[in-house]
Amino acid sequence: MIFVFCAILLWLFGWWLNGRLASGPYAGTRLVRFVAPLVFGLTVIGIWELVVRGLEVPLVILPAPSVIAVRFGGSLPVLWADFVQTIIKGALSGYIIGCGSAFLMAIAVDRWDFLRLGLLPVGNFVAALPIVGTAPILVMWFGFDWHSKAAVVVVMVFFPMLVNTVAGLREATAMQRDLMETYAATYWQSFLKLRLPAAMPFIFNGLKISTTLALIGAIVAEFFGSPTLGMGFRISTSVGQLSLDMVWAEIVVAALAGTAFYGLVAMIEKAVTFWHPSQRG
User: Which DSSP state fits 48?
Assistant: First the structure.
């Protein structure tokens, strides 16, 4: 019970420290915005460790963070190979193809109204299809290697990116578009000078949403067929072997990759849309 008591004390200390950071004289600064979530995360990990140790939770139910860390450190070559197979080859390639083609299609949809009226309802229908139904079909079509995972990612990210980009291209007001026509601007001049900059927050919103969808799609697709490699394959086989520490090690890799991926897109957004009110400090 001493571990559980220490967990309660740690929770109270973390609560107090975060409260002081949030209400102190440096609240709102960049340092506090970095330290506060770090303190919260370390507090959760510490409580997790103490509770699991104190209650003697079996490994097959929930391994302690220290056990996961040991497995993570001892399996770096395997985790790296799975990362390259799933994230770099499957998720990233599908993300680039899906978002790029969705952006080009959004320009066509914006240019011709019949595409907007005909394609977007179909897109909403396809976006609602469950991945557990489409992934096995795409694996059958494209094989068991990373190509089928990239195809699943393309299907998952295409329509969210398309809808956001089309909405962004229509963000410019009628008065602004009329002003461009008054200046005798061509469609492409109006597109590049007015409508594309106005659409940038929407485009990056679609890109950030797609980062999560890409990781989920690539990992889940590997449950339906893959070579003896990949994060989804490793999670599936490790669960069957009751090796829950390896499962959590793969989850840590996925979480770190997803956070870095999202953060990279957010950094690019801040550099590109520095003029937007949401980016002003």
Answer: H
Are residues 5 and 47 in contact, defined by beta-carbon separation less than 8 angstroms?
no
Phi/psi of residue 107, nearest 5 degrees: -65, -40
CA distance 252 to 86: 14
Helices (H), the chain: 2-23, 30-55, 65-74, 76-83, 93-111, 113-127, 131-142, 146-169, 174-182, 187-190, 196-221, 231-240, 244-272
Backbone dihedral region for residue 230 (phi beyond 0: left; psi -120 to 50: alpha; all else: beta): left
Q: How is the chain split into domains, by residue range? A: 2-57, 72-279
Contact 254, 91 (CB under 8 A): no
- Of 44, 1, 42, 58, nearest to 245 by C-alpha is 58
Asked if 201 and 167 touch (Cβ cutoff 8 Å), the reply is: no
Please compute Rg for the chain using Cα positions: 23
Q: Which residue has the higher pLDDT, 127 or 91?
A: 91
Check whether domain 72-279 has CATH 3.40.50.720, yes or no: no
pLDDT tens-digit series, residues 73-106: 888 899 999 899 888 888 999 999 999 999 998 8
Q: What is the pLDDT of residue 98?
A: 92
Structure tokens at 9: 């004390």
Picking from 139, 153, 160, the residue whose alpha carbon sits closest to that of residue 218 is 153
